[in-house]
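Translate sequence into structure tokens.
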Amino acid sequence: MLAYFKKRLRLEIGALVVVAILASVFSGGLSPYLYAAAIQGDNDGYYRMAIVIQVLLYVGVFYIWYLVDSVARKIDRTILMTAGVILLPLAGLLVYFFKEHGIKTGSISALSVIFLLAIMQFAESFGGWLVIG
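Result follows.
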């Protein structure tokens, strides 16, 4: 029974990684247009919109990871921990991992999140490169 939940958790996190990469490529592909519009002086709101899109992307991915992990492991989510993950996503998620998983598993989970963040940054740059050519 435990093997089923571990396999399911891996599948859910794997699906989240794929969605995060695709969303990062989309965000990276959208950003050059928004930055160019801001530089040309059309409206400063485009630049702000690009930043908001990117911030929401990262916050959303980290929050969904927190949600999926806590449901799969049957860990109660407190209001304070949820607020920490939403307001300071990377720090909140790292605190959650070390608090709920312990040192060994928390370290592995923390490295996974940092690796996902690096992949998302690369995918975002790749999306911008695809658009610019």
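Note: Helices lie at 2-39, 45-72, 79-87, 89-132.
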